[in-house]
Amino acid sequence: MLQTWFRGLLRLLGYTARASSSKNYLINFCSRKIKSAEKEPGLFDRDSVILLWRLLVVLLKQNGSIVGQDIAELLLSERRESNTSNHGGHDAEETITNTASGPVKSEEELTGHFRELLLYGSTKEALEWAMSHGLWGHALFLASKVDARTYANVMMRFANGLTMNDPLQTLYQLMSGRQPAAVTLLFIIFIIIIFIIIIIIIIIIIINCFQPVA
């Protein structure tokens, strides 16, 4: 049944490519379906229904041809509209807050930009954005799907971002097979202390040598 429907849809798209009047009629039909679904808040999985109708509109407009960027634009526009409807009641409050304390991006906004970069295929930019804005969960997961070297670099950057006296940094660096920065610092301090002690001993010996014998 489903395969038959898809075959019929493909034939339909092939026909509309040769008949612009029929294509316009079908686009208007899909648009009416979208508006109808938007007015039915109780419709099961309404967002998915609207998204499918919009996908059909894109396919019809482009004569059955679609690329990854078209899908990305479609998903992002759907996401923006959903966020607008969900947070519409808080716009005034957010505006006052942003005016008073400056534009501070929430975690949702940061994740949204990360999502956009990924949907547009900008993996490196998305990874750098996630690390620069503290989205380490997303950064580590994405890096693990790129390659081992990228994952190791992200892990090292995450560990180095912790304070030097944090035991977690020492633990993570040890587990990564690297010499912990805290251990290196302690070793340097130890060497400096030993050097100071040696200098003091030498000074004492020199002073004793030049003292007159009673």
From TrEMBL:
Q: Is Heme included in the keywords of this UniProt record?
A: no
The record's family statement is: Belongs to the SEC16 family.
Which InterPro entries does the entry link to? Sec16_Sec23-bd (IPR024298)
**Major localization listed first in the record, in broad terms:** endoplasmic reticulum
Record's Gene3D superfamilies? Answer: 1.25.40.1030
The protein here is known as Sec16 Sec23-binding domain-containing protein
Which keywords annotate this record? Endoplasmic reticulum, ER-Golgi transport, Membrane, Transmembrane, Transmembrane helix, Transport
Lineage: superkingdom: Eukaryota
Places the protein is found: Endoplasmic reticulum
List each copy of the Sec16 Sec23-binding domain by range. 115-186
An example GO biological process term is: protein localization to endoplasmic reticulum exit site
Which PANTHER family does the entry mention? RGPR-RELATED, SECRETORY 16, ISOFORM I
